[in-house]
Amino acid sequence: MSADPRMTNVEGRLQEMEKYGISMQVLSVPFHGALVQDKPAALDLTHAANDVLVQAACKYPERFRVLLALPLQFPELAVEELDRFAGEATVVGVALMGSAGGRPLNDPEFMPVYAELQRRDLPFLLHPISPPGLDCMLELNLANVVGFMFETTLAAARLVFAGVFERYPGLKMIFPHLGGLAPYLMGRMQWGYERFPACNVNLSAPPEAYFKRFYYDTVCRNVPALRMALSMFGTEHVLFGTDIPFREDIDLQLKDLEALNLSVADRQAIDASNAARLLGIPFLPGK
Question: pTM of this prediction?
Fold first, then answer.
């Protein structure tokens, strides 16, 4: 876990936002409480994480919004946490990790949480936390370099092929790191859909149709990959994101976006209006 003071120093974060001309950030945490199998401990960690986030957003409501951490491994606690912040204007979605208490995200016990997210119109960010096969990635920092991408790609594929987005057509997902490996594997997923009954029995459309419904952040650091994502998913489904404070990427990402030579309207969409529309945040061009 990073000891960077920007994890907790709100005023320092505001100074950084001013430096880059960022008027508002949506805050979330990489929630290790999703790995905890002790119920009281998971609840305590959930409350601690969300109280800090919401407190910051309520102190600066013009600068911050929040994606709540949820203990998905305990679905009833997850719904209770949604209830705890029902009506809180700064909460605009939730963050789910790539697994929950050692179980995949398509576990049938988690379906009531997805139903609640759809009912409340709360998007979820799918964020990595502990990649499968971690023991094979401990040297060379491979968990950070490639493992997290494997984790979210596997989780997204499970959710799609298991029919979660078929069952909850109003459910909205943000796929970070430009969709992990999914864009490059789309042909392989189509082959699986055509070849294996398990990969099509729960779907009414090819897998790419569901991936086109997702939203993708720009955390990538590769201009050709950005072009591919924009071509595959459309400008209206790409959001500016950052891995700050885990790596210094804002300036580099801005340079990558400049290299794409996008129209003013497309840049405004990626920089602000797509996220504002998805998360229900009032947006005035030029702000």
Answer: 0.94
